[in-house]
Each structure stands twice: as structure tokens, then as C-alpha cells.
Amino acid sequence: MIDFKTIFSVSQFARQLNDHFRTQFGAIRIQGEIASITRASSGHWYFGLKDDAAQLKAVMFRQRNVLAGFLPVVGDKVEILAQLAMYEQRGELQLIVDVIKKAGQGNLHEQYLQLKARLTQEGLFDSNRKKTLPTVVFNLGVVTSLQAAALADIKQALARRAPHVQYTVYHTAVQGEQAAAQIIDALQKADAAGHEAIVLCRGGGSLEDLWSFNIEAVVRAVAACKTPIVVGVGHESDVTLAEFAADLRAATPTAAAELISRPTRELLGEVDGLYNNLRRALRHRAQLLVQQVDRAELGLLTPTAYVNALEARLSNANGRLPRLVARHVRQHTDSLEQIGLALSAEITTSLDLAGKQSQRLNESINKAQKRRLVTLDSALQRWESIVEAVSPQRTLERGYAFLQPQRGNAVVRSINQIEAGDKLRATLADGEILVNVREKTGTSGLLGKDAENSR
């Protein structure tokens, strides 16, 4: 009890009030709306907390606000745990805030943690059940809202990085009471459509805005997709349970598009490399086959050479005949006629046999050469078909063209290389045409038309 006769200095009375407030109120919970906020260079937050009838000043020091997990802005509904105190130098009452969170977030955050723990224990988030994304994606399903900024980010990223990727948008609400059922339906349609991969995405927001992606049925629908799926929701700090269930999590929708697609320029470089390797392989293979034919021909005895060899043997035999006859005449005068007849028969038989062997050998050689040539011709035709299928000419015949200045051989790769009024040569599959540039339209213009067609 303070004696009314006691005289206090201003600082003494302010200290008494301060002690009284701390003792009387201790830690208190207050809910209200951020009326104003200042973030000082020291890192401290100074803000006003109000409702319809009153307003209080509050301060949250840096060592406490770094644990808040979000940056309050004017208009946020928040709940604080604080102590009432007096700023003695100015004689102002203020709240010293220890904890701050968005109003109503406590229950949602607790549900989020409980469901995450249960699904983790169930194994729904295990890495060994996640599917590997395809190396190259040409056909993509995008599950999001047609009005979402995330869709524009996806389109812009694909147009800039991988225009070869064809995509189909499956519209769904991404927040609100109907969002969960629509997301599940869109995921099932995209999964059944035969896409090589699926992207589920939306922009950032509060925990309430993103809650559709934390509903158990949605999380299980993501995990049940047979098609590899990437989920990119919000910003880097926004993490939903659907992202844990996905085969790959992206920090943003743009990052999702980049993760799912390889740059067109990189793929074209690989195709050029494969084409050059194929040409070298075909050339090397043809050289080997020609060498094999040459070696085979060198190893074969031609019919002429075989007959010459037989004739040489016959000539040698004819050279020996007179001496043999003379010796036999001297030794066996009585059997001269029989020896002559026998010799004549042997010569006739040898010639007949030699002729038949020569004919058979000639036929065998001709058949072998024909089979080898047919094999070589078939192999060369197959390689020529492969080379022809990946040739630039075939690409042009599928409806593509490339542009060059009217004078010069450089290829136009960007609208930044040309101006309205320029004359260009367009090379098609069967010739060239001369075109005048009336105007040029950037990628953003094409994206707007895509969005209008999607609606």
C-alpha cells in the first residue's frame, strides 16, 4: 500500500508501475489485427495491435521474431503471447511479445503435423516408393487453375526452355471447399491420359490458402498416381504434404517446369552428336565390309587359275609320257598297246573330272559372291534408311522451316535478330521462299493466346 504522503520522482513511479504490470498480468494471450508495423535496422519489430474499439503498442525483439516463421503485414489477424510493460523513457504502455502466430493457425498447424507424422509412419513418403522421372518429356499434364499465375509461370518456362514439350492443362480450383475434390478428379484424368509426367502446382499463400494440398485424400491421390508427378506449390518456404507424397518436389511452379523438361537446345545437340556418330559408324562398317570382301576374293582360286593349274599338271604329265613309253616299250614290248590305251583312258577321265570340278567350283564361287553382295547391299540399305530418317531434310518435310537473311547464311534463332521490313529466306523441304517481316510478336503474346484457347 502506497502512502499518499510519499513523494515519488517520475522515474521512481514509472518503475513502480512497470513492476506492478509485470506482477499483475504476467504472460497474457491477445488476439487482434496488425494496424501498423515497422521493422527496425536492429531487427526488432514495432507494431500496433487493434480491434474495433482499441489499440495497443507492441514490440517483438529480434531474438524472438526470428522464430515466428512469417513476416506480419498490416491487416493480418494474429495471436500473441506477451507481457505488459511500460516504456519508461516515454511513459508509454507496450506489449513485449514472445510468440506470434496467425490467428486460427494453431489448429491447422497441429492437424498438419499430426497427419504428416501418421503418413510418414505409414511409409507414404518413403523414397523407395517414388518413381524416377523420364529423362526426356515430350507430353506433359499440368493440373492447376486456368486463372492461376502458376500456369503462366509454367507456360513461360516451357516456351523459353523447352518449346518441344506439348502440355495439356487440367483445370481445378486450388483453394476453397470444392478444391480437394476437383484436384483429385483432375489428377485421375491426367494419370489416365498417358502423359509421360504430371505437374501439380499453384502459387503461394497462407496455410489456409494452401490447405487443399494438405488434405489426406489429396495427398493419397498424389501418391497413387502411376505417372511420375512433380508438385510445386507456392514459394520456397511453402511445403505441403502433397509435395512429400510426390515423386519430386519443386520449390516453385517455375522450378517444376524446369525440373520436368530438358532444354531443347541440349536435346538438339545430342541428336546432332548421335547423327555424326552414326555416320562415322556406318562409314567404318562399310570400310570393314569392303575389306572383308577383298580378303575373301584374294583367298578364292578363280576358275581360270584352277584350269591353268590342271593344264600345268597335264603338261607335266605329257612331258613325262615319252620317257615312260620308251621305257615300257623296252621292258614290255608286248604290252605297248595296252599301256597306250590305259594312258589314253586316264587322260580322258582326268580331263572330264577336271572339267566337272572346274564347273562346280565356278558355280560355288558365283553363288558365294552373290550371297555376300546381297548381304552387303541389304546392310547398306538399312543404314541408309536410318541416316535418311534422322536427316535435316526429313525434318523439313515434316513441316518445319528455317529462316535466313536474304543475303547471308546465318540462321535466324530469335526475333531480336530481325526488324519489321526485313526480307528473309525461308527454306522448306522442296525449296526456298522470300518473305517480308510485317511485324514481330514476342513469346508473351503467344502465351496469352494459349491461355485464351485453354478457356
From TrEMBL:
Top-rank taxon, per record: Bacteria
Protein localization: Cytoplasm
Reaction(s) this enzyme catalyzes, per UniProt: Exonucleolytic cleavage in either 5'- to 3'- or 3'- to 5'-direction to yield nucleoside 5'-phosphates
EC number: 3.1.11.6
Segments forming domain Exonuclease VII large subunit C-terminal: 124-434
NCBIfam families the record matches: xseA (TIGR00237)
Keywords attached to this entry: Cytoplasm, Exonuclease, Hydrolase, Nuclease
Listed CDD domains: ExoVII_LU_OBF
GO molecular-function terms, A-Z: exodeoxyribonuclease VII activity
Subunit description: Heterooligomer composed of large and small subunits.
UniProt keyword annotation of Ligase present: no
Pfam families from the UniProt entry: Exonuc_VII_L (PF02601), tRNA_anti_2 (PF13742)
Family annotation (InterPro entries): Exonuc_VII_L (IPR003753), Exonuc_VII_lsu_C (IPR020579), OB-fold_nuc-bd_dom (IPR025824)
Name of the protein described by the UniProt record: Exodeoxyribonuclease 7 large subunit
Family as reported in the entry's similarity comment: Belongs to the XseA family.
Organism: Limnobacter parvus
Start and end residues of each OB-fold nucleic acid binding domain: 8-100
Main localisation: cytoplasm
Role according to the record: Bidirectionally degrades single-stranded DNA into large acid-insoluble oligonucleotides, which are then degraded further into small acid-soluble oligonucleotides.
